């Protein structure tokens, strides 16, 4: 079972609308949780990073939240733009052990005019 | 600063052929990673280097995949012979310090299609 699950798998929204992407994880203990944006044909680019003690982190129109008790994170996108069309990947870094990151399978967001 | 460079960007080969990918990490980054990303999935770590030494290659199919990082800078990933299921994007990433957990910078990837 994947230790990082994302939902929905894909999402289509109208330009200007808001949306929220979900990430549930079982990695524990963890060092930090990141949200990456991956444009088609590009490598992932970090949007936000939160440690286990942080509840929220913003980067422009992107706001990530973290509930370490329920092991859930969300990424909220405000006033979506066509350029937000991409895959959004939740990545959890374990606190100890291997340096491997645990990647979710991503949410494919399509913003239409 | 310049990002992680990869080449080629695209490659189409027939099954049983060989292929090699190249990666140049961000200058000064000691740690280099190769990931395989199959369409619709998150990246899967294949191999991690610390300078020119292998830290983790537990998920590398060693019967057909090999990687090296001579001189602790550039790296090459080779597949020989390729199978249809190797069709994927191969991402290279680098980080300054493996203890700087999670701060990895990714290259644009090489999209491999095996026919």
Largest interface chains and counts = A-B, 22 and 24 residues
Quickly give the structural class of chain A. Answer: mainly beta
Task: Report the sheet with the most strands of chain B, covering strand number, pairing sense and barrel closure.
Answer: 7 strands, mixed
Distance between the termini of chain A: 37 Å
Beta-strand content of chain B: over 45%
How much helix is in the residues of chain A?
Answer: under 10%
| Structure summary, number of beta strands of chain B | 11
Q: Please give the count of helices of chain B.
A: 0
Gyration radius over CA of chain B: 13 Å
Mean pLDDT score of chain A, rounded? 92
- Categorize the overall geometry of chain B: globular
Give the CA-based shape of chain A: globular
Count of separate DSSP helical elements of chain A = 0
The arrangement of helices and strands of chain A along the chain is: EEEEEEEEEEE
Mean residue pLDDT of chain B? 91
Oligomer: heterodimer
Distance between the termini of chain B: 37 Å
Computed CA radius of gyration of chain A, to the nearest angstrom: 13 Å
Give a short overview.
Chain A has 113 residues and is mostly beta strands.
Write the layout of secondary structure elements.
The complex is a heterodimer of chains A (113) and B (115).
Chain A: E1 4-7, E2 10-14, E3 19-25, E4 30-38, E5 45-51, E6 56-59, E7 62-67, E8 72-77, E9 86-94, E10 102-103, E11 107-112
Parallel strand pairs in A: 2-11
Antiparallel strand pairs in A: 1-3, 3-8, 4-5, 4-9, 6-7, 7-8, 9-10, 9-11
Chain B: E1 5-7, E2 10-13, E3 19-24, E4 31-37, E5 44-50, E6 53-56, E7 65-68, E8 75-79, E9 88-95, E10 105-106, E11 110-114
Attribute tags:
heterodimer; A: 113 residues; mainly beta; 6-stranded mixed β-sheet; 5-stranded antiparallel β-sheet; 0% helix; B: 115 residues; 7-stranded mixed β-sheet; 4-stranded antiparallel β-sheet; globular
Description:
- The complex is a heterodimer of chains A (113) and B (115).
- Chain A is mostly beta strands.
- Chain A is 0% helix and 58% strand.
- Chain A starts with a strand and ends with a strand.
- In chain B, strand 7 and strand 8 (75-79) form a beta hairpin.
- Chain B is 0% helix and 48% strand.
- Chain B has no helices and eleven strands.
- Classes of the chains: A mainly beta (113), B mainly beta (115).
């Amino acid at each position: 079972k994947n230790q990082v699950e994302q939902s929905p798998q894909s999402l289509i929204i109208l330009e200007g609308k808001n949306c929220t992407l979900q990430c549930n994880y079982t990695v524990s203990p963890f060092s930090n949780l990141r949200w990456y944006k991956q444009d088609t044909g590009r490598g992932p680019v970090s949007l936000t990073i939160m440690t286990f003690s942080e509840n929220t982190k913003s980067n422009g129109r992107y706001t990530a939240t973290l509930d370490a008790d329920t092991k859930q994170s969300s990424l909220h996108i405000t006033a979506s733009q066509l350029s937000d069309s991409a895959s959004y990947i939740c990545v959890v870094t374990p606190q100890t052990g291997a340096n491997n990151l645990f990647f979710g399978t991503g949410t494919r967001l399509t913003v239409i005019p | 600063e310049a990002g992680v460079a990869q080449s080629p960007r695209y490659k189409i080969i027939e099954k049983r052929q060989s292929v090699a990918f190249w990666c140049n990490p961000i200058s000064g980054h000691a740690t280099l990673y190769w990931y395989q990303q199959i369409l619709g999935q998150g990246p899967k770590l294949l191999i991690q280097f610390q300078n020119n030494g292998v830290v983790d290659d537990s998920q590398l199919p060693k019967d057909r995949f090999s990687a090296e990082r001579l001189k602790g800078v550039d790296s090459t990933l080779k597949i020989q012979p390729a199978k249809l299921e190797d069709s994927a994007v191969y991402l290279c990433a680098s980080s300054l310090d493996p203890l700087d957990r999670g701060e990895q910078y990714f290259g644009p990837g090489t999209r491999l299609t095996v026919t």
